[in-house]
Structure formats: C-alpha cells, structure tokens
Amino acid sequence: MKCIQVLFLFLQIFLISAEYQNLLNNHEKLHKHVSKSYNDAVCQSQLAQFSQALTESQEWAVRLVDTWAKVGAGYLSGNTVNLGDFDSCVKFRYENFQGQHCWVTISALPNSTFNNDTNNIYLKKFANFLHNNKIEHVQNGFCLPASCSPLAIIEFLNLNFLSKNDLAASKAQCRTNDIPSLEPLDYFAIVFFSFITLLVIMSTTYEIKMKHNDRIEEANRLLTSFSIYTNGAKLFDVTKIKSASSLNCLHGLRAMSILWIILGHRYYKQFPWGNPNQLEDFDQTLLSSILKAHLLAVDTFFVMGALLLTWSTLRDCEKENMNILRMIWRRYLRYTPVYAAMILIVICFEKYFVTGPYVFTSLRDNCVTNWWMALLHIQNYLPGADMCLDYGWYLNADFQLFLISPFIILLIHKFGKKLLALPAALCFISIIYTITISVIFDMRYRTLDAGQGLENFLRWYYYQTPPRSGPWFIGIILGYFLYKNRGKTIKISSWLNAFMWIISLSAMITVILLQHGFSISYNSSTAAHSLIIALQRNVWAVGICWIVFACQNIKTGGFIRWFLSLSQWQPISRMGLSMYITGLVYQFFMMMNQRVPLFANAWHVIPILWSDIVAITIISIFFYLIFEIPPMKIEDYFYKKYQNSKKLAIKSAQI
C-alpha cells in the first residue's frame, strides 16, 4: 500500500514538476532537438524561447506550464482524460508567443519495465504503471506555441521526454482561441440565413398588419408562408380532434419516442466520462436497459410513418385523387430543408459554435465530402465513419421505403386484403436477410462497443434499409386495417382484450430485457445473437401496432390510451422531425465545449438531460417554423394555383 501511495505521489508531480525539471536539465539538448527536427522557424524559435525561459524560471513560462494537465486520481477507474486549464492556455499571450492547447494521447511502450537507470524516474514509473495495469492510453492537455503543428508537438514531446522513458505520444488535437476566417461558403450561409430571417420578419409583419386591418381573409397565402404568427399558432394548438377517425394516440407515441431518443443519445454518445468503469457497472443493470432500448424508438417511427402513408394513400385512391409523384415530392420537402439547414450549419458554423478542447473533425469533414449523398437520401450505404450526420440514416431509409410503398399499397387497394401477404413476405425476407448478415459478420451485442464488430454492425445492419424495413412493412398492414375500420369500434371480449394487452406489453418488455441480457452475455452463440438482432425490432413493431389498434378501434387501454392521447403531446409530436435532426448536433456541440469530463452520477446527469430537452425543444421550434412548415405551404400554394389554372383552361376549352 505504501508503494502505491508513493507511486501516486510521484504521478501527481509528473507534468508540473518532473517535466519542468527535465526541461531545465536538458535545455541545450532540447534546443538541439528542436533545431534538427522542425522546419518551421517560428516554432523552433518559440520552443527555444520557452525552454530558455523555464531555465531562468521566468514567470510567463511557469504560468504556461501551470496550465498543463496534472496526473489525477482514478486511472484504474477509467478516468484517463485530463485537459488541464484549457481556457487559460488559449488566452495565454506573451510578446509574440500565443498559447495553443493540445490534447495529447500518451501510451506506454510494450516493453516498459522499471529500472533506476533512466532519464526521468517519474516518467519511467508512470510508463510502468500504465503498462502493468493494461491502461491503453491517457489523454493529457499541454500548452505549447500556437506556431507549432500537431505533428511538431508530438515530435517535441517524444524526442525530449517521452520516448526515452518508454512513453509515446501518438496523436495531438490542438486548438487556439483564434477566430476562424470566413470561407466563401460561410458568406453564402450568412446571406442565406439572413435572407430567411428577413422573410420571416416580413411575412409575420404582413400577416399581423392584415389581421389588424380585419383583412386576414384577403392575405396572400404565399406571403404568409413564413409567418410565425400563423405557423406558431398551429404548432402550439392543443385542441383535441374529436373525429372518430383521428389517430390521437400517435401524438403521444411520437413525442415519447423522440424524448427517449434524446435521452439515449446523451447517455451513449457522451464523451468524456470521468468514471467510465463505474459506467460499465451501471451498464450491467436493468435500468440501463431502458436507455439502451432507445434505439427501438426509431422502429416506432417506421411503424407510424408507414401507417400514415397507407392511410393517406388509400384515402386518395377512394377519392380518385392519387398523385404518386406529388406524394414523393412532398415527402422530400418534408425532410430535406430541415436536414439541409442543419448540414449547412455544421459545415459553416461549427467552428464558431465549438470553442472547447474537443473536436470531432468527422462531424464537419464528412458533411463537406458527402453532403450531396445525404440530401439525396442514399448515404446510409456508406461506412458509418464517412456519413454526414450519421443519424440521418433514418431519414434515408424512411425515404427509400417511401419510394416503393405507394405501389405496394395500390396493389393492396386493387386486390384487397389478400395482398397483405406482400408486405408480410417482404418483412419475412428482411428477417432472413438480417439473420444471414448477422451470421456472416458474427454480430454479437457484446462486441458492439468498438472496433470491427461495431463497424460491421452499423454498416451492414443498423444503417441499411433492407434489414431495418420489417417494422415499416408491419406498419403498412396496420395502416390498412385502421383505414378499413375507421370510425368503427370493434367489440371483443374482455378476456381476449386483457390477453392481447398482456401478450403485447410482455413481448415489448421481453425485447428490451433480451437486448440487455445479450449485451452483457459472453457465452451466447452466434445463432442466438442473430435471432434476437433479426426479430427484436419486428416484435417491438407488432407490440406498437396492438397499442395503436387497441386505442383507436377497440377503445381500450385505460391509462395508456388516455396518456398517449393527451392533447399536450401535440406540439412535441409535430416537432419530432426537427428535434431528431437538431438534437444530436446540439448534444455534440455541448460535449465539444466541455472543459472537464462528466461523471456518471444521477445528480450530474439528470440536470443535463433536462437541459438537453429544453434547449433542443427551443431550437426545434425555430427549425419547425422556418424550415419545416414554410416549404410545405409554398408547395401547396403553387400546386393549388396550378390546379385552378388547369380547371380554368378546361372550362375555357369547353366554352
């Protein structure tokens, strides 16, 4: 125990004392290495100036070193991230010397062993500590000249005090507080968003003026498309539709699903955690299974999307008002403007919104490269690491399924319910396909933490449309029965009703528990994992179908039906798409601005979850009012105008 205490005492002074002393003792050698290793004259000069100032104990150099990360507690608990004083570092200025914060990954060399014959006993002990305890790497913050590139920083650290002590820096991510320069696309984004803001102001002012003059009926619908006055009133309208055919319970399902996704994203995307090992312990609990199961909420969206499409298509068929091209075009307009606006914000403004030490470079870089695939809704076949806003896979899969579904529904309408065998067969094919790829790639929930197992899971199963299509086809079947029984109340025995509720809820709970059980199981076979991966989402979808059908046509469900049908769910339900698109980007921006790791503790996490919900809701209000509703209203205006002109032309021809 005393040895461990001594070791940690040595570790505590590793960055502030040991390295400082090492630099003092090796100033001339350091200067020699700098001169030989780097071509950047400014970097060489400033590193030499820094080392000389340390030799002379000048205040500015000591203040710079004081911002470096210190060895902290909790390495064995997984707390391997220590940023140091980020803000003081990037604000540091001395003459022409500007501080640059570098988040450096340091690991022990494989052959690390302790001996007293070493350049620095503290570093050697630290390397031996990492090696013996199988700690893959630590990530510490250093403050060094802004004139040096990350590669130069790595070489500097390795050459002067890491490699000779069995340590190695392998990666550096550096940031300053310089304001990024504007690029041509940034100017376009500023002009675009300014123009949209001006449209909103003018449209709202116009409508308010027309209403004030009691001429609202004369208002041009095109000019009021961007009006917050009307669009906002519709968004926050909680009037409960009492029509027998209204699907009120869908509002509650949609709202609860998006909130579940927001909570799950924060829990599983959060980085860094200050106590990841304790998080792993929590991951073994049943409570964590609820958070893990947030992935099933997307399948609820698939069911509802297919249900509503089937309903509207069958209605249009009966009215002989079917226009497949317009349906597809409106679906594209429904998703794409909000998605495109968020992509533009990430590409152009992420560098201004993110002022913290963490930078997920792929967030912006992937959108610069693959934005066009995202807007065409085809990027879900790319490797996950290359996708622009990878959560957009759902929008891509939904749109692809939307393209083929009207033709399936038309066949069902023409030939009757016997053609429901078609979506059922497609669902079965999806299950077989999923089992096949799960076996081929040996997909197991236990291997989905990182590495190749996770990559295969995401690329070949999670993001792709065929293995995710089962709930959609189940939703088509539900939509058919709901439409054919609209306005009707189906009577079944109380025993059968209770049995169906018990079976459905039990099946959904079982899916959650099985997913949790397999995620912590080491010994389950590939076949067992493949079956649960292939069946879980479809079983969940069937459970959702029963809830909707029972609430809508059987009028049972008690508290569940009442709760899901509350009119207060409607605003969140309407904003579901905007909340989905903006939510994770907001959470990423918040994570990248963190100065210290977050500790997995209810008192820390719950306030953050609530703040996520509030902030994302506020952001989504603006996205919904500005990018989601106006394009649909504009399209509707021009379509009706086209239809009216077409009717006038027909009448003129008849005359």
UniProtKB/TrEMBL annotation:
Signal peptide region: 1-18
One term of GO molecular function: acyltransferase activity, transferring groups other than amino-acyl groups
One Pfam family this sequence matches: Acyl_transf_3
Protein name, per record: Nose resistant-to-fluoxetine protein N-terminal domain-containing protein
Start and end residues of each Nose resistant-to-fluoxetine protein N-terminal domain: 40-176
Matching InterPro entries: Acyl_transf_3_dom (IPR002656), Nose-resist-to-fluoxetine_N (IPR006621), O2_lipid_transport_reg (IPR052728)
Alphabetized UniProt keyword annotations: Membrane, Signal, Transmembrane, Transmembrane helix
